[in-house]
Write a structure and sequence with these properties.
The protein is mainly alpha-helical and 387 residues long. 78% of the residues lie in helices and 5% in strands. Strands 1-2-3-4-5 form a five-stranded mixed beta sheet.
Length: 387
């Protein structure tokens, strides 16, 4: 708008200048120069004044706009400052939480490292222990005893440990006592050296070699058990012997690598048992023993029931007789307290009536009885005089 006004002013000034030039043509050169100078001076003054006004207005408008923009910028900066304060607070909170979490993580990592070291030491100790045949045997016995205890079997009643068989001299680790004096033997020793080497092998070739060696050791162990006379009719044993494998992983490994081993063992009357399968077998044995004992004592229980019934009949007869006697005694007591009492009270009532009719006082009757009845001292003297 200010520029349009300025432009209009320039046009008006140009027209005025043009008119002045035309006028100058009609006048003399000197006068024309004077008039032109005057007109140009006035026009220049007008243009200058107009430019000052426009500049002043533009300056005021710019100042107002600058002030508004300054306030807007200040407001925006204030909001940004508040936002930055919030971000700063959040960053400080995150830093504090990070430090706390980092401390907890460090503590957990330290604890995990200690536990890992402890497990490593335990694994090394277990590996060293299992390297010995004697230690493996003791470990197998301990595992078997835990399972026996879990099944509720009692040593000396349901099983015996390492008792030598008299007829052959063999000594199984466990002998389970069955009904009718039957027995079943169990051996807990099992080869694990090749299996441990298989687990520690670094190459596939070494693993295969140790695996094949372990499977051969298992087959040899089955044959060894067959030659120890654990199945012996002279000792009243059943036709099977149990071989305990004290680890589910080893049992599963045998089944996975060569399932024919278990089948072949069954054909040779050798039962390979892991901890879980041994528990199942012993549970069946325990149930069979309980059923046999229950059947064995059934006849005795029936006999005892017959004796009890006979004694109960006699007891009931005696109680009936006692009840009748108690009833008779009660009837006799009732007679004494009613009829006999009334019969005794009648003469007493008659005597009391006579005493009242005669006017005899109770005191005189008592004195009469005292005079007529000798006292204790008189009786004593008479006894001394007449012994």
């Amino acid at each position: 708008m200010e520029f349009a006004t300025f432009f209009i002013g320039l046009i008006i000034g140009g027209i005025a200048g043009f008119a002045g030039c035309m006028f100058l043509k009609k006048t003399s050169a000197k006068d024309a120069e004077t008039i032109a100078n005057t007109l140009f001076a006035q026009q220049a003054q007008n243009i200058l004044q107009l430019a000052k006004n426009e500049l002043s207005n533009a300056s005021k408008l710019g100042s107002t706009e600058l002030e508004g923009k300054k306030r807007l910028i200040d407001q925006t900066l204030g909001q940004m400052e508040k936002g930055l304060d919030g971000v700063k607070t959040l960053v400080q909170s995150l830093e504090t939480d990070r430090a706390k979490k980092f401390g907890e993580l460090s503590q957990q990592l330290e604890t995990t490292a200690k536990e890992t070291e402890r497990l490593r030491n335990t694994a090394d100790a277990l590996r060293s222990a299992l390297a010995s045949t004697k230690s493996r045997g003791q470990w197998g016995e301990r595992m078997a005893e835990d399972i026996l205890r879990l099944c509720g079997l009692v040593e000396g009643i349901n099983y015996i440990k390492q008792k030598k068989m008299e007829s052959v001299g063999s000594k199984p680790d466990f002998t389970f006592l069955l009904p009718q004096n039957l027995k079943v033997n169990m051996d807990v020793k099992f080869p694990l050296n090749a299996y441990m080497q298989y687990l520690e092998a670094k190459t596939e070739t070494d693993q295969k070699a140790h695996r094949d060696q372990f499977l051969r050791d298992v087959k040899l162990r089955i044959k060894e058990v067959q030659t120890r006379d654990y199945i012996n009719p002279a000792e009243n044993t059943v036709d099977y012997v149990i071989v305990f494998i004290p680890n589910e992983q080893v049992y599963g490994f045998i089944q996975e690598q060569d399932s024919s081993i278990l089948e072949e063992a069954m054909k040779n009357k050798v039962i390979l048992c892991s901890p879980l399968t041994l528990y199942a077998v012993l549970a069946v044995i325990r149930q069979a023993i309980d059923n046999f004992n229950l059947e064995k004592t059934s006849a005795q229980m029936l006999s005892l029931f017959g004796t009890f019934k006979e004694q109960w009949s006699k007891f009931y007869e005696s109680m009936d007789k006692m009840g009748k006697k108690i009833k008779d005694a009660y009837d006799e007591y009732d007679t004494l307290t009613t009829t006999r009492k009334r019969m005794l009270e009648r003469p007493l009532d008659r005597i009391e009536e006579l005493r009242v009719q005669k006017g005899i006082a109770l005191d005189s009757i008592e004195n009469t009885f005292e005079i007529s009845a000798p006292n204790t001292s008189q009786v004593s003297r008479l006894q001394k005089t007449n012994p």
